[in-house]
Amino acid sequence: MDAIFDRSYLDTVLDAVKSWADVICSVVETAGEGVKLFPGQINPKTLKIPAGTPEDPGFFADNRELQGCHPHCHNLLFDLGSLDVFYTLEGVTGGRRYNKAADEYLKWFFENCLYPGSRYFPWGEHVGYDMVKKEIRRGSYKGGHEVKDHIIPWDCFWRFSPEAVRNEISVAFRSHICDEKTFAFNRHAAMDGTPNTGSWPCSLMDSGGLYLYGWAWLYKKEGKAELLNWVKRMHALPMAGKSKTTGLFCTAEDRPDEMWYHDVLSYAALVLPAAALLGDEGETLRKDALDLIGNYYKYAYNAEKGLFYDTLNISSGKPVTGLSPHCPEKERSNPEYIKAYTRPEFLPVWENLENSNNVTGVLVSSAVSYFYSKDRRALDLFTAALKTVDIPAFVQSGKKTIAGKIAGVILALCHIYRLTGEENYLREAAPLVEYALKNNYRNGIFVTAFDGGDEYYCTRGGTGDLASALLAFWIACCREDLPLPLIRDVIGDCSW
After folding, report:
1. What single string gives the DSSP state of each residue in 154-188?
2. Are 89 and 14 in contact (CB under 8 A)?
3. Angle, CA 78 vertex, CA 77 and CA 80 arms, to 5°
4. DSSP 3-state assignment of 99?
5. What is the pLDDT of residues 245-258, one digit of tens each?
6. CA distances from 255 to 190, 327, 338 (A)
7. Strand segments (E) across 139-281
8. Model pTM score
């Protein structure tokens, strides 16, 4: 690939990734006696964990709900990309330093970080492990157990604690079910192990698909028929709610005729890996997921404008704009409710809007779906999303965005290149790689910012995923013998 990209330029990309990994190792060595976890945040000026003070705030220090993202917290969910890099670097460098650091991280996590009593993983936005105080930090929201949007490397975790993995998949995930008859669930569950049975559901399928994949993985590992039954019952939930006219399902129970967050697409991207694991037993999952992708493309994409609708009425397939009719009548003068129940006409492309997904997420979900299915419908959707994302225009604009969005697009392009052999996908990625090195790299470490504020290394902002994306780009260009780091976050923005 030297004919396309100068080798010295490619070496600069790899050097940035190795420098980032070295900084992580250095911070781990100094962060706390014996703690082997990777930090969730780093101040790029001091190369230390942020103090969480007005002088060195980091992100989310004062957010009582998002304590899993506190400046002092490590968070396993947002470190999946980082761990992939550390394990992949062994094949690049020939040394074991990074592999050893990743092994020590996971060993320490499973020996010291599981929640007392329930033994649930402390991961996701609401709960994490405080590396400074050496204790689990939990937010004010009682349903602190929440994971979504990611393809989890269960095989890797199993090497360190089969018991913990089995408990997380078969007990913690199962505790989210609210209705045993329908399998309706809430993406939040209590960390103490109290099940959601009988409580109000909010069945967001970017979490349901994650549970389904976990159950499918454990079924293939241990062969328990009950787990396959759970897979089928979870999948039956959105399929039962599909519109007969559009083939789409609603995002959550409080708006039974509306789909937003491109939920059918992120769900499909989580179901297809499960279907691949299950083989013949997953054929129905595969077919249904691919149908969802085709239906989403048919109704969500406005070819004339080259944009994707944000919210659709699942019966008519028409866009829903303005204030949703499902906004409670008594709250229609409440600014918070108006904000929550008002969706834009079109999905934002790159913008960082609160409580919103992006067209970059459509691109990443379709790339994941193509990776696991090799079906043309997923590639066609990817092609449309790539046109809408318009990388040259974004780079030329000079606008900043969350590191995870850049990472997701680069990773997606590298994987599509590997699957198709078409070098134009690497050419599309190159300007974003240069953009990232210019705008998201400070003092040997990757950074991001939220809402135009200070820049920090922050895994919830996708900085670890950015390291994974740049390594994937280097491997795609220089080492055809090595596998690319996988896309872990199926919407490519670290759950923002």
Report:
1. HHHHHTT-HHHHHHIIIIITGGGBS-TTT--BBS-
2. no
3. 75
4. helix
5. 999 999 989 899 99
6. 24, 9, 14
7. 258-259
8. 0.96
